[in-house]
């Protein structure tokens, strides 16, 4: 058995086509969704991510504005900028690109963004709404994963989902979203004893640890759905995931590749959240 591959890149492209039509309809109602990204410093990866967000925004018609600030920007200066954006009625979504320089407290910055403009879905109020099972802005990568599963009609309710990794950005929220879909969720992490025992029970296995080929086919239940969130650069310069893809695909039923799997869905869900925010801010119900 060779697994069917879930190409997030293709799904993201299809969703963006739908979003473009949605934005066109909003513009006819004189509503243009606007996302402002704040970028501090010269981190090459951050600049690359932001360029990707600019390109994707243009593709669907979302207005994208990038505020590029110097590495020496103080926490107070950044908070002042966020306050201005919070009060700017033309801005629907605010995203401060992480990681931030060491002298700026990331949590302070996340909590300063208005929950109604937190299209990254990281504000504690939005996290709380998610835990309570209420409609809110969900964190983009976890939301993208759930969207991928549903696109393949994966049955989530009643299934055993195992999350390897417990980060606030991916691991914890994706487990909560799966719980909201009535899965039975187990978290594995660096202190977990006999991790393989848990992963071999997983109907849905999500791996987000940032370690090259951390799991192999020996860790996967036959017929499982495997979502690989990891992005690691090998010695030959190529990208690979946290799962050893070539062996795992012979054991799984569905599997995501790296690259071209989860990654493209993250920016797509950011655009989804920005469009949703624009609708909310303008009381737009559509037709």
| CA-based gyration radius | 19 Å
Written as H for each helix and E for each strand, in order along the chain, the element string is EHEHEHEHHHEHEHEEEEHEH
CATH top level assignment of the largest domain: Alpha Beta
Largest sheet: spatial strand order: 1-11-8-7-5-6
Could you give a short description of this structure?
With 287 residues, the chain is of the alpha/beta class. Helices cover 40% and strands 15% of the residues.
Descriptive report:
40% of the residues lie in helices and 15% in strands. The chain is an alpha/beta fold. A six-stranded parallel beta sheet has the order 1-11-8-7-5-6. Helix 1 runs parallel beside helix 10, helix 6 (140-151) crosses helix 7 (171-180) and helix 6 (140-151) crosses helix 10. It is globular, with a radius of gyration of 19 Å. The termini are far apart.
Task: Give the tags.
single chain; 287 residues; alpha/beta; Rossmann fold; 2 domains; six-stranded parallel β-sheet; 10 helices; 11 strands; 40% helix
Please outline the helices and strands.
Blueprint: E1 4-5, H1 8-28, E2 34-40, H2 44-60, E3 63-69, H3 75-86, E4 93-96, H4 106-112, H5 124-131, H6 140-151, E5 160-164, H7 171-180, E6 184-188, H8 195-199, E7 204-207, E8 225-228, E9 232-233, E10 239-240, H9 245-248, E11 254-255, H10 263-282
Parallel strand pairs: 1-11, 2-3, 2-4, 5-6, 5-7, 7-8, 8-11
Antiparallel strand pairs: 9-10
């Amino acid at each position: 058995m060779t697994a069917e591959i879930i190409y997030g890149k293709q799904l993201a492209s299809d969703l963006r086509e739908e979003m473009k039509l949605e934005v066109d309809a909003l513009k006819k109602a004189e509503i243009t969704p606007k996302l402002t990204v704040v970028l501090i410093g010269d981190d090459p990866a951050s600049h690359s991510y932001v360029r990707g967000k600019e390109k994707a925004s243009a593709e669907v018609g979302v207005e994208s504005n990038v505020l590029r600030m110097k590495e020496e920007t103080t926490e107070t200066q950044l908070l002042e900028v966020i306050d201005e954006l919070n009060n700017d009625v033309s801005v629907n979504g605010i995203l401060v690109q992480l990681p931030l320089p060491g002298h700026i407290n990331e949590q302070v910055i996340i909590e300063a963004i208005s929950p109604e403009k937190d299209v990254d879905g990281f504000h504690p109020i939005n996290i709380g709404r998610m835990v309570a099972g209420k409609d809110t802005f969900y964190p983009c990568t976890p939301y993208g994963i759930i969207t991928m599963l549903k696109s393949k009609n994966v049955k989530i309710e009643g299934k055993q989902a195992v999350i390897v990794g417990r980060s606030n950005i991916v691991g914890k929220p994706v487990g909560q979203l799966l719980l909201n879909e009535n899965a039975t969720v187990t978290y594995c992490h660096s202190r977990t004893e006999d991790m393989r025992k848990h992963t071999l029970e997983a109907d849905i296995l999500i791996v987000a640890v940032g370690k090259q080929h951390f799991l192999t086919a020996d860790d996967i239940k036959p017929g499982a759905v495997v979502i690989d969130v990891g992005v690691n650069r090998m010695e030959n310069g190529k990208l690979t995931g946290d799962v050893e893809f070539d062996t795992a695909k012979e054991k799984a039923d569905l599997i995501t590749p790296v690259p071209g799997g989860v990654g493209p869905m993250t920016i797509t869900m950011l655009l989804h959240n920005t469009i949703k925010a624009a609708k909310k801010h303008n009381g737009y119900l559509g037709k």
